[in-house]
Amino acid sequence: MHFASDNTSPVPPQILDALIAANHGYAMPYGADAIMAEVRTAIRETFEAPDAEVYLVATGTAANALSLSLLCPPWATVFCHRNAHIEEDECAAPEFYTGGAKLTLVEGADARLTPEALREAIGFAARGGVHNVQRGAVSITNATEHGTVYSAAEVSALSAVAADYDLPVHMDGARFANALVATGATPAEMTWKAGIDVLSFGGTKNGCMGVEAVVLFDPAHAWEFELRRKRGGHLFSKHRYLSAQMAAYLKDGLWLKLAARANDAAARLSQGLAALDRAELLHPTEANAVFAAFPREAHRRAQAAGAQYYLWPMDQSLEGPGDVPLSARMVCSWCTTDEEVDALLAIVRGD
Amino acid sequence: MHFASDNTSPVPPQILDALIAANHGYAMPYGADAIMAEVRTAIRETFEAPDAEVYLVATGTAANALSLSLLCPPWATVFCHRNAHIEEDECAAPEFYTGGAKLTLVEGADARLTPEALREAIGFAARGGVHNVQRGAVSITNATEHGTVYSAAEVSALSAVAADYDLPVHMDGARFANALVATGATPAEMTWKAGIDVLSFGGTKNGCMGVEAVVLFDPAHAWEFELRRKRGGHLFSKHRYLSAQMAAYLKDGLWLKLAARANDAAARLSQGLAALDRAELLHPTEANAVFAAFPREAHRRAQAAGAQYYLWPMDQSLEGPGDVPLSARMVCSWCTTDEEVDALLAIVRGD
Amino acid sequence: MHFASDNTSPVPPQILDALIAANHGYAMPYGADAIMAEVRTAIRETFEAPDAEVYLVATGTAANALSLSLLCPPWATVFCHRNAHIEEDECAAPEFYTGGAKLTLVEGADARLTPEALREAIGFAARGGVHNVQRGAVSITNATEHGTVYSAAEVSALSAVAADYDLPVHMDGARFANALVATGATPAEMTWKAGIDVLSFGGTKNGCMGVEAVVLFDPAHAWEFELRRKRGGHLFSKHRYLSAQMAAYLKDGLWLKLAARANDAAARLSQGLAALDRAELLHPTEANAVFAAFPREAHRRAQAAGAQYYLWPMDQSLEGPGDVPLSARMVCSWCTTDEEVDALLAIVRGD
Amino acid sequence: MHFASDNTSPVPPQILDALIAANHGYAMPYGADAIMAEVRTAIRETFEAPDAEVYLVATGTAANALSLSLLCPPWATVFCHRNAHIEEDECAAPEFYTGGAKLTLVEGADARLTPEALREAIGFAARGGVHNVQRGAVSITNATEHGTVYSAAEVSALSAVAADYDLPVHMDGARFANALVATGATPAEMTWKAGIDVLSFGGTKNGCMGVEAVVLFDPAHAWEFELRRKRGGHLFSKHRYLSAQMAAYLKDGLWLKLAARANDAAARLSQGLAALDRAELLHPTEANAVFAAFPREAHRRAQAAGAQYYLWPMDQSLEGPGDVPLSARMVCSWCTTDEEVDALLAIVRGD
Q1: Is the pLDDT of residue B168 over 80?
Q2: Pairing state of beta strands A169-173 and A198-202?
Q3: Which of D230, D236, D239 is the best substitution to test chain B (most B C-beta atoms within 10 A)?
Q4: B171 pLDDT tier (thresholds 50, 70, 90)
Q5: D74-85: average pLDDT
Q6: ipTM strictly over 0.85?
Q7: Can you list the domains of chain D with their CATH numbers?
Q8: Residues of A with CB under 8 A from a CB of B
Q9: Which positions in chain B touch D230 (Cβ < 8 Å)?
Q10: Using CA atoms, how far apart are residues C212 and C224, in angstroms rounded to an integer?
Q11: C223: DSSP letter
């Protein structure tokens, strides 16, 4: 019963096998390996974007911060949701990589931006001429930090707001596959056709050891990206091992299958909880994370039984009256089993 | 009728005379001038702080950003009001000088922080361990951007919250003199006795050509400050001309007299407006700025008569129905006359 | 006998009078003052550059660092002389403002770059693709830190090397007037006609209180410059006092007269020393600084008589055998008198 | 015949097996995995440093830049050899991570610092008070970029110079194992006993997929390091895969065996070349890299036969008279075979 995060999971055999297969003979370093050429082609085909440039890094924070540094100068601001990973979970990496840009935090239910709120935030910003930061970029997280997703149409609506102000749009797709599976959109529909300029295309949370692709749909700043990646210490010498993961991830739709499995597990958990009087869903379960409240006593039993997940927010206490509801985040991954889900449900039910 | 800002005013004769007097013979550069020694002594005496270190820079943004860079590391956040100058009017200078720290924006009426809101914001921050930015510092603006002031006791209450989290406290005192005059506190009571670690002590808005003192009540990081100042390009070679302004500003309480005059003018304007049915004060007038709404038609007449002030927010339009109230910011300075105030009041009244 | 630096001098009456004249009534802040419009026009005319954009800051370090940040990205390097002010005297301000660019130090006698040495340095750089910093910009100091000057033709020859690599060229003209007077070139010949893209046009060392102009001969990045200036805390609210200095400095060729006086004084000192058996010039005296060695005993007498100048390098000692030659830097300014020069010469001669 | 770099090699089976073994079940992320606890213990034991703190990152540039950012403030300089990796091969990552510190380049034969040259460089720096950058740290590369090594005694001598100025010392140990094997020193003797404060302990070049340890012998700034690592995007979520590599690398002295093999291969190649009239060694071969010159015609034959190595410097041309000697860098790794070495030698000999 491991629901702590999708980053506590192991790697599926296809990806491990690809690493093993890559481990023969010499290979050119720093992205000049033959597998990277395959990856580039595969991503271009997957996204129907023959001109896109593709770069690999090992962490989502690196992918996001480097991407934003390409889009937003130091004297500008990135419009994002208050609960975005770039705001809450990256220890000011975007500020570091941009050289001191701001994040302007936009409110919205379920960690989702609305076009109206985004427009208001952009409109309000930069009204003081040289005195305040300028409008820089928009960043959209899909799937969101609260387990919800944007449809391609919703992304388009947000990008249209950005376009009204000539702002580029970044998508934090650490859980891009989960969003895609949930919506049924194609990769192209969800990205460049919906106005996305740069995508952080996540691999790690969805099954890889540690690899994310940055996809630049407009390759104009590709060389700048390469220099920024190197300067950030994110250019791998033995790059083939990043390439191999990503190649296997993309092959035969593995990435979508892994995400589908995670989403299905979350749906099962969510539906199971929703059926209980004692439990309440806190956000719609649209991807692979379930946010729900249920009695403290059930949490105590779950933890005693070895279930792993975070009380969310984390400063709630298991001590106290048993009938008080505590809220929790439970994340499913490609390797979550129905048995795990059912076991947790049984505990919450009090079986 | 000039109420656009306190930075559109000229310099009082005492300060000009001091510049003229300083302009004889050679003087050691970079702060080693004899006048700077006087300034240091005068500020230490004024603040009853014999160990304080004192440095001069030419702009308020430099004073604030350098001060914050001393208190807040790049991976931490500065808690401040949403309307603070460091957030709204410094084009990310704090982010630049700190190396990418965040500002955490706290809400509060009349541009004032409350201890409760501050505590909630600090408590909420840094709950994710290494993943999010750490708690860095608190910055308090006195007088505030909305013309209100904190009493020394109110500053102490805010500092006490900061102290609970071991956070240092900065005061943006661009209008420190106005706050002091308004409250009757001594400089010491308003600063180190109330928990302030570093003060941006404003000179420019209150009558100087361009000089602000940074007062480090704890001199432990004085040398670091000197290096940061130099590296920021804020160390003046012909430093005597900064020193001379500040020396004259402090001499015989000139700084307090200038602020008193500005505050009195604002009070006269505020009271005059408050007496009108057609006008409404938007914030209490406690220092030298008046925020009020009155009919568009009166604004049109005022502007036609050459009155200078900003509609606030700036995106309101003078075009449209004359009876719609528009809000405005009107700032008084050391050289605002009662005649100017009365002339504006007459126009608003429709005399 | 004050030869410590040209920044220990007072301000000539024309500049002080301009400040006094500017100190009437209200003036729009932040560079929107009427005097700034005059300054802009005057500089455009002086440089025969009607499209140039002109901005004022208060220190040479700010002018240089901001200029370089416009020309050189964080992953590139600025080619400059090993003794350049940007390397030796700005506490890494260029690194700070560029966001971490390097300076590549080029050797050359008398603090002067040669086209050959510059070409070799540029050619050597950036040969490792993405692994090393890229070629960014060239910075030329005129007059140099060792009191020599480049002719316009020499500047052109350096710019031609930069042009071969598509690199922009910055001139640190903290002592631009001294170089101009020394060479007889026009401002245009020395700058844009010789391939200079951005000029730090010094006022402070040559008589102003504290003002430098940054002249962008190509205005394409003017708005970026304005944002960088603000973000660095270098935008003055009471900007008229910068404008007034610069306007007076330019009026009726004052700037050239001041520099001519300083150069003449240095020439007199240099020639007087050269005529002595016991003294040796260390660099040609082409602007307003004299570098010479003479016996320790003469230094002791000079210092005893109150002469002010720096032993150069500074770590030489006045203690020891009297006949050992020590080297010194003696800088003349607009207010250096022949009497001061002759008095120092008399001491060195041993009169 | 692959001598392009030690980063073109595959991974030895022990490390791959460790990855496979680690790939079971759930593991806590971000360094809280059980294998990391083993790694920490192993490194502490290996270095006889029970209080050391140990962190893993994936690239050498990250290890170096993060380490230096801990030791050197933005207004200071790192003393290093002109050919150091941090200068030549990291695209200003140290400048980026330190926030704009400088590197002061010290000359020395065979990419080695001498105490005398280091002392002179440190002594020369920071003589201008606040005006220039301060002395920050010393960085020593062992093995060096030219395939030479420092003995523990030589490291101590360099550290003693640093200690005279109270400067911390960093060792870039991307090829630490090669240096250790070459000198016979223990890990402790080569590091903290020789005055090293922070070590970049390389894994990647010596056989890992991509992992470097940063060893802080003084744990005082451990938390700061963790924040800097996260903010740089270098904290891995699925950290177990870094841990597993490093654990296997350390186990049963694998790291030393791999390095011994690489060094032996280089020695064989070096000796073979030295025995030829037509070849000349350019640096002593003390670790795993051979620098030698031999006739262009031999290079042409080698390249035609598929040998991979870099002409060094890279801008030499294979076109031209065949008897002209060209210089080359040939790097051996853990998987270089005697057959490969002999094949290359045969080609150079002209067999």
Answers
A1: yes
A2: parallel
A3: D230
A4: very high
A5: 98
A6: yes
A7: 12-254 (3.40.640.10), 255-349 (3.90.1150.10)
A8: 74-75, 77, 88-92, 95-96, 98-103, 105, 127-128, 130-133, 313-315
A9: 75, 130-131
A10: 18
A11: H
Tell me, what's the pLDDT at A126? 78
Is the pTM here over 0.80, yes or no? yes
> Contact C88/D132, CB-based, under 8 Å?
yes
Inform me whether the pLDDT recorded for A330 exceeds 80: yes
Contacts of C328 (CB under 8 A, 6+ apart): C291, C292, C293, C294, C299, C309, C310, C311, C312
Cβ burial of A300 (10 Å; 0-12, 13-18, 19+) is middle
Token code pair at residue D2:
């692959």
* Percent of chain D residues topping a pLDDT of 90: 97
Task: Judge: A231–C131 Cβ closer than 8 Å, yes or no.
Answer: no
pLDDT at C128 over 80: no
Predicted pLDDT at D318: 95
Buried b / exposed e over C218-233, threshold 16 CB at 10 Å, is eeebeeebbbbbbbbb
* Whether B33 contacts B56, CB under 8 Å: no
> B217 pairs with which residues across the strands?
none
Cis (ω within 30 of 0) for the bond into D52? no
Looking up tokens 């950030």, which residue turns up?
A: A232
Q: Residue A292's beta-bridge partner residues?
A: A281, A328
Tokens 């020069």, located at residue:
C341
pLDDT score of C100 = 98
DSSP A64: H
Contact A30, A235 (CB under 8 A): yes
User: Confidence band (pLDDT; 50, 70, 90) for B314?
Assistant: confident
D193 is written with which tokens?
A: 């006993």
Site from B69, B85, B91 to mutate, A interface, most A CB atoms within 10 angstroms: B91
**Which pLDDT belongs to residue A1?**
87
What's the confidence (pLDDT) of residue A128? 76
Question: What percent of chain B lies above the pLDDT cut of 90?
Answer: 97
Residues from chain C that touch B9, judged by Cβ atoms under 8 A, are 26, 238
Q: D269-291, pLDDT tens digit by residue? A: 999 999 999 999 999 999 999 99
For C175-206, write each residue's pLDDT tens digit.
999 999 999 999 999 999 999 999 999 999 99
Among D28, D59, D308, the residue to mutate for chain A (most A Cβ within 10 A): D59
- pLDDT at residue number D63: 98
Written as one string, the DSSP assignment of A275-334 is: T-TT-EESS---SSEEEEEEEHHHHHHHHHTT-B-EESSTT--S-S-TTSEEEEEEE--T
Distance of alpha carbon B296 from alpha carbon B302, whole angstroms: 10
Phi/psi at B80 (5° precision): -150, 170
Contact state of A210 with D59 under an 8 Å Cβ cutoff: no
Q: Where are any strands of DSSP class E within C134-234? A: 134-141, 169-173, 198-202, 212-216
Confidence at residue B72, expressed as pLDDT on a 0 to 100 scale:
98
Specify the pairing of strand C134-141 against strand C169-173. parallel
List CB contacts (< 8 A) between A75 and chain C.
227-228, 230-231
Residue B143: cis peptide before it, omega within 30 degrees of 0: yes
Helices D254-274 and D240-250: angle between axes, nearest 10 degrees: 60
Return the pLDDT at C340.
Answer: 96
The pLDDT, as a whole number, for residue D127 is: 79
> Are the C-beta atoms of residues C332 and C262 closer than 8 Å to each other?
yes
Q: Per the CB < 8 Å rule, is A75 touching C235?
A: no
Please give the mean pLDDT across all residues of chain C: 97
Report d(CA B342, CA A248) in Å as an integer: 78
Phi, psi of A27 (to 5 degrees): -140, 140
Scanning every residue of chain A, which has its alpha carbon at the shortest distance from the alpha carbon of B134?
A: A91
